[in-house]
Inverse folding.
């Protein structure tokens, strides 16, 4: 091979080497041992320092990597050249954009024929991925360590069942120290009856959440929830268990379960649970041919306690009564509370009705004992209705219905007594049921209408408004006043639909009168509408009124809503907000039949009211009754002092008119002014005036 061929071959070989070096993942460079000038560098090495392969040749080591870096690694270079050994080290070399980067450097001496170093080879590997991975592992472990210390839940690590690490909450839960727990088998902390379950989870290596129990150091059993996971920590495969104390949760669930079957105030069975237990006892009684007695107990005038003393004292009365009921009955008897002041008792193991009477007399005597409430003794009496199985009914619903019917008869007899069910009582209940059906039909058949009774100014006698009074033109019984049907409507929630009909009809009439020019001396005619207790206590009642006004095109200023004192006191916590919403729509709010309820002066000052109507029972005794005079005058003067308009109902004589006017009463309503009239007659009456 001649010289030219040899040179060409060497050039080809060098080109191949350079091509190979450029594509290697490592950075490669060769430096002269004496001058430290770069003799060779592959593309990766040159670009790592922001140079090209051509530019980097001839530059010194310090010029390429910088004087600070050169000074830092100079000891390693000197060792390579002096000791003729390869040296490796790592250092951080940030990328051109400033992101962190780590490299692993290998310095390898190249020796000449005489054994002296002629050059040093630099081989660099980018180990950034490895270092970032290691950093992530360290950070992850650091976070885990912090979590182990910060979390309130117990955490335990074990390897093949042997505890390797535990956080403080876990130690605190079971009462052991860290040193006492590490090295022990995890099963030694498990409740004996739960060992099989936990062993199976460990054997299967499953990752799941389940409930079990551990044992405290003092022997206490602690219900817990385990959340089991498999993970690696410090290069080892471990099982991690999150230990969650569930004692509070189980206690809450137990309370919820108890409340699902018991009354929250008295602890007695609630309606659903009572009915379930009652059905069981009735099936047993049917099989054995036994007698049962269902007692429906209602406390007489209990609402007066709530109205006068408040619901907290009322609750105390209910609790005391429930305790007395339980104390007077046997353990086999069933006792429940259906709501409000309604209690039910199911008596079993009876030989005759005489046994029932013994229990009834005992219940009357213990419940009638005065109850301490608000520092005073209150007498609460029960009215009890009794239905006997199987004579009065063979189904639970039928028995309860008959006992309820008998209870109402007991109340009608004078309260504080008991009444056994009789078939005649069912006939009365049937009449109510028929009336209920007829009421529902009357709404759809438009059999109801409004009568209007005028209201006038006391000083001038001029018309100031009218009260809308409901009438039912029954197809068979003729014109009926509310007294003959309203109690049935209220008991069966028909009052909601009927009350809304009255409000709509009154609003539509007010609009029609305005269009016809029928007004009073101060402007549009205002029509007063009586509200039912059920209506006023309905959620969103103010929105219902707003919808009625929009649908009828009436203004709120054309309507006055009348409420009784009891309606206000029964919901004194929410009544002010509802009244404020109604007044914001322009409606006038008045208290009807004032003087017959239990409104305190404090309540009158708290409630946003416009008008107060004196009950006609006081007006009827004027002017001769001294007591009626004192009460009525006090009511008028108090209302005027509070800035309320005062209307007297039932004014029949001129003497009553003059006396009430002298006290400051501003408006009158009654036979002296005008009787209730159909709309057409009222319109004619207004035009005639």
């Amino acid at each position: 091979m001649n010289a030219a061929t040899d040179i060409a071959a060497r050039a080809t070989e060098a080109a191949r080497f350079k091509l190979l070096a450029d594509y290697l993942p490592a950075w490669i460079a060769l430096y002269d041992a004496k001058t430290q000038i770069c003799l060779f560098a592959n593309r990766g090495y040159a670009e790592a320092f922001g140079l090209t392969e051509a530019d980097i040749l001839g530059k010194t080591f310090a010029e390429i990597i910088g004087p600070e870096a050169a000074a830092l690694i100079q000891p390693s270079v000197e060792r390579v050249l002096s000791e003729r050994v390869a040296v490796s080290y790592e250092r951080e070399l940030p990328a051109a954009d400033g992101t962190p980067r780590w490299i692993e450097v290998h310095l390898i001496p190249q020796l000449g024929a005489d054994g002296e170093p002629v050059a040093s080879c630099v081989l660099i590997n980018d180990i950034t991925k490895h270092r970032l991975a290691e950093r992530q592992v360290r950070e992850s472990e650091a976070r885990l360590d912090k979590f182990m210390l910060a979390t309130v839940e117990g955490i335990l690590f074990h390897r093949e069942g042997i505890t390797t690490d535990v956080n403080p909450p876990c130690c605190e839960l079971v009462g052991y120290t860290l040193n006492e727990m590490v090295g022990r088998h995890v099963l030694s902390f498990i409740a004996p009856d739960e060992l099989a379950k936990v062993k199976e989870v460990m054997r299967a290596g499953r990752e799941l959440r389940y409930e079990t129990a551990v044992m405290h150091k003092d022997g206490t059993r602690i219900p817990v929830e385990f959340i089991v996971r498999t993970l690696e920590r410090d290069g080892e495969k471990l099982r991690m268990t999150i230990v969650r104390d569930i004692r509070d949760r189980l206690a809450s669930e137990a309370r919820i379960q108890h409340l699902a079957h018991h009354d929250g105030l008295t602890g007695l069975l609630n309606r659903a649970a009572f009915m379930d237990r009652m059905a069981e006892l009735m099936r047993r009684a049917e099989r054995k041919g036994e007698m049962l007695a269902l007692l429906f107990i209602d406390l007489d005038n209990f609402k007066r306690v709530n109205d006068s003393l408040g619901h907290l004292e009322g609750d105390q009365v209910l609790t005391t009564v429930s305790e007395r009921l339980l104390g007077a009955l046997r353990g086999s008897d069933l006792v429940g509370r259906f709501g409000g002041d309604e209690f039910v008792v199911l008596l079993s193991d009876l030989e005759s009705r005489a046994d029932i009477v013994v229990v009834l007399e005992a219940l009357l005597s213990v419940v009638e004992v005065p109850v301490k409430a608000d520092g005073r003794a209150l007498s609460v009496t029960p009215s009890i209705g009794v239905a006997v199985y199987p004579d009065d009914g063979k189904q639970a619903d039928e028995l309860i219905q008959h006992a309820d019917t008998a209870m109402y008869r007991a109340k009608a007899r004078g309260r504080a007594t008991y009444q056994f069910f009789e078939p005649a009582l069912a006939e009365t209940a049937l009449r109510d049921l028929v009336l209920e059906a007829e009421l529902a039909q009357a709404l759809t058949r438009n059999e109801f209408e409004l009568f209007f009774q005028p209201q006038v100014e006391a000083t001038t006698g001029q018309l100031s408004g009218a009260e809308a009074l409901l009438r039912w033109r029954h197809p068979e019984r003729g014109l009926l006043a509310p007294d003959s049907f309203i109690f049935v409507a209220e008991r069966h929630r028909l009052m909601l639909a009927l009350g809304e009909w009255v409000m709509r009809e009154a609003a539509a009439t007010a609009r029609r009168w305005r269009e016809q020019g029928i007004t009073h001396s101060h402007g549009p005619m205002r029509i007063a509408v009586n509200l039912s207790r059920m209506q006023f206590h309905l959620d969103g009642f103010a929105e219902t009124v707003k919808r009625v006004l929009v649908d009828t095109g009436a203004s709120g200023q054309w309507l006055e809503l009348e409420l009784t004192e009891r309606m206000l006191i029964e919901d004194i916590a929410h009544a002010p907000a509802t009244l404020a919403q109604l007044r914001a729509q322009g409606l006038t709010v008045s208290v009807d039949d004032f003087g017959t309820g239990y409104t305190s002066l404090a309540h009158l000052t708290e409630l946003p009211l416009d008008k107060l109507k004196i009950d006609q029972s006081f007006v009827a005794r004027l002017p001769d009754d001294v007591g009626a005079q004192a009460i009525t005058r006090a009511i008028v003067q108090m209302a005027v002092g509070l800035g309320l308009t005062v209307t007297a109902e039932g004014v029949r004589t001129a003497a009553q008119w003059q006396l009430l006017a002298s006290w400051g009463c501003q408006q009158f309503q009654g036979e002296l002014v005008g009787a209730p009239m159909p709309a057409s007659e009222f319109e004619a009456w207004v035009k005639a005036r």
In short: The mean pLDDT is 84.
